[in-house]
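Hi F.,

I've been meaning to write this up properly since the lab meeting, where we talked about keeping a consistent format for the predictions we share between groups. The idea is simple: the sequence comes first, exactly as it goes in, then the structure tokens exactly as they come out, then a line or two of notes. No screenshots and no reformatting. I'm using this chain as the first example so we have something concrete to point to.
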Amino acid sequence: MPPPGSYWGFQSWYYSAGKVKNQGKTMDVNYSVDVFMFAPTFVHSSDFRIFGGRYAFAVLIPIVHTNFSVSKTFDIPLPNHLGVRNISVSRSGSKTGLSDVCITPLMLTWEKERYDITTGLDIFIPTGEYSSSNPASPGRGFWTMAPKLGATLYLDAEKTWTVSALAHYEFHTRQQGTNQTPGNHLHLEWGVGKTFAQIFKAGIVGYNSWQVTRDSGPGSRGRMTTANAIGTEAGVFIPGLNMDVTMRFFWEYKNRNNAQGKTATLSVMFPF
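Output, unedited:
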């Protein structure tokens, strides 16, 4: 958690995938998805304490642009041995708009000499437009409540070496327009990093996501999704502007019943 004060900034995120994993195997389809998100972010960190933990809250307002297409060609034999006809089935969409706003009304951090512990609650509000007929809809059409718990361990007295992990557990409500309820998800973000000269930082980062309960409702699928990624992190603190800039790159691997691709993120935060 940053020192007490109010901070502005933005989170940007780009995801690109060209294949879909079905039970761990790549599906024989032409698949492409590109998603770009830009999210102005506000964080207020205070000296107020609850059960000894320092209180903060945050708001993230994402704008999303999505391009999506999937197609598959079938060889259909014609009657009377007249040959084979290729029939293609496809679906695509493109959309830009406000996605689902995330508010964090409660975040508590306990700061100790060699470790920090953080807990809180993220709430995703279905402010984005959603249509079941458009796979590129910027919104998801349901509320999500995500309690979280994380820790950072400092491996040396100067706090230059860190090991960190943050877990979220997502509960979803019924999706508008489909009457389906997505299953719950457990997400884990982790990293190992080193700070140089109190300005530069670099490390190895990753995330893992597991769907832990099945979707329910009419037409819902029985298979559950997983996603795994590993990547690199680089950042710099600019003292003259009191600005923190962080970039991360992730490569997904061994996903199941899910798209599999690459992610790049950029985070910029500064006080005002």
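Notes:
Residues 183 and 215 are 4 Å apart (CA to CA).
The domain at 5-69+97-271 is CATH 2.40.128.130 (Lipocalin).

If this format works for you, I'll send the rest the same way.

G.
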